[in-house]
Structure formats: C-alpha cells, structure tokens
Design goal:
Distance between the termini: 11 Å
Binding site for ATP: 6-13, 124
Enzyme class: transferase
Function: Catalyzes the phosphorylation of pantothenate (Pan), the first step in CoA biosynthesis.
Number of helices: 7
CATH class of the largest domain: Alpha Beta
CATH architecture of the largest domain: 2-Layer Sandwich
Subcellular location: Cytoplasm
Strand order of the largest sheet: 3-2-1-4-5
Largest sheet: 5 strands, mixed
Strand content: 25-35%
InterPro entries: ATPase_NBD, Type_III_PanK
CATH topology of the largest domain: Nucleotidyltransferase, domain 5
Length: 248
C-alpha cells in the first residue's frame, strides 16, 4: 500500500492506494503532521512506500518526511521541480518558482487528455494554467479563492460581520443580498465565477478550438456550470504525483 500526500500551507490531503485504487476509509484532510500520523497509524495498514508533494518550506517538508519514515518505516519520495516531465515543458522563466501542486496538476491533466488543456484549481487561492497541444506550459494566473476573499473582507471592513455558519445557506441562489452574509458570500462567488468564465475566452485565444478543461479543488462544484464540458477531478494533483514519483 502507498501513502500519498498533498501538503498545503494549512492542510494535508492524504489517501492510501492498494493496487492503484484508494483504500476504502483511507483518505481525508488533516490540519497537522501529528494528526496525519495518528489517523494513518490507527488504520493499521501495511504501507510499503510514501510519496508527497509539498508547497511548504524545505525545513517543514523535511520534518514531515522524517516523521513519516520513522512512524511507518517506509521510504518517502518528494516531488521536485523540473523543466520537463511526461511531455510537459515548464513555462516559468525560473522553473522552480512554479508551485509544485500546479505543476503536477497540469502534468496530470495533459497525460489524461493528450491535447491542449486549461487547468483551474479552486482552493484557498485559485490558479489557472494553460498547456498547448505540444505540451508547452504557457503560464497562468493566481487570484484569491473564496476563503481568502471572505477573510479579507471580514478582516479589513469593520461592519462586515456575520455568522460563518450562514455561508452555505446563502449560496442557494445569487439574487442581490439583503443581509451582510448574503451580500458578501454571493458577491465573492460572483467574482470567482467571473474569473473562471473569463478563462474560457482566454483559453480560446491561447489554445485554439480544441482543448479540454479540468477543474480541481474544493470549490470546483461552485463553478462547474460556468464551464460546459469541464472535467471535475478532485485528485488531479495525485495523478501528477504518481508520474513524478513512480513506485515499482
């Protein structure tokens, strides 16, 4: 069994594979290294290897790898930046500056589609990336996602306050808000949907008429109707991770 990790700045997404399939009950999201070790250890799985992608600092990543190797007596492979991987050429002038999660997502998408792709990841931040039919990464965009937009408003505008438990309910429709929660949540969502919709027009200019769209990240369901025909693949980064860190 293989433990796979997608380590963000705040959360760690994890899953365990057996014969290429996710083990039932062996996946989730945790908020600390200790929580990860505890929950995986409680499953009593026979792990043979671990691979991870991390956007944390080198020191933080090394600490996590050390904890994993000690806890489960396995070798832990960490994805690294590269100029070329599986037919995709990194489009950043400094290839190591492209976030590893973005890099693996575009590699994974290109390997699935075998054609030009637009990849949009909707998490705390929202990223979009373009890859040509020839595998050239043409660059992309980064903007705040819903959590960051919401936090900025709540932090920097004194009268913008409401119960966060209201947020899901008020997104049932997008009519103009008549309460603070409605106005903020719907306004942020409209901004997000506007950004995503704009990527479609840009993709047509950059990629031509024949390209596939991939949506990933926790907020992908909120914009899927803006992108007709888009593929929603929550574990797109893990697909790229398996390519970057193959385990026999």
């Amino acid at each position: 069994m293989i433990l796979e990790l997608d380590c963000g700045n705040t959360f760690i997404k994890w899953r365990v594979l057996s014969d290429g399939k996710v083990v039932t009950g062996a996946s989730g999201i945790v908020d600390s290294d200790q929580a990860l070790i505890g929950i995986v250890r409680s499953l009593n799985l026979s792990l043979v290897a671990c691979r991870l992608v991390s956007v944390r600092s080198d020191v933080e990543t090394e600490i996590l790898i050390s904890l994993l190797e000690q806890a489960f007596t396995v070798k832990c492979l960490a994805a690294q930046s590269s100029i070329l991987l599986a037919g995709v050429r990194n489009g950043y002038e400094q290839s190591q500056r492209l976030g590893l999660d973005r890099w693996l997502a575009v590699v994974g998408a290109y390997q699935i589609a075998h054609k030009a792709v637009l990849v949009i990841d909707l998490g705390s931040a929202v990223t979009s990336d373009y890859v040509s039919a020839e595998g050239e990464h043409l660059g992309g965009y980064i903007c705040p996602g819903l959590p960051l937009m919401r936090t900025q408003l709540l932090t920097h505008t004194r009268r913008t306050r409401y119960d966060r438990n209201e947020s899901d309910r008020v997104l049932e429709n997008l009519v103009p808000g008549r309460a603070t929660a409605e106005a903020v949540e719907r306004g942020c969502l409209l901004m997000l949907r506007g950004f995503v919709g704009g990527q479609l027009a840009l993709a047509a200019e950059l990629l031509g008429d024949d390209f596939d769209i991939f949506l990933t990240g926790g907020d992908a369901p909120l914009v899927v109707d803006v992108m007709p025909g888009a593929r929603v693949i929550p574990d797109l980064v893990f697909i790229g991770l398996a390519i970057a860190c193959p385990i026999d």
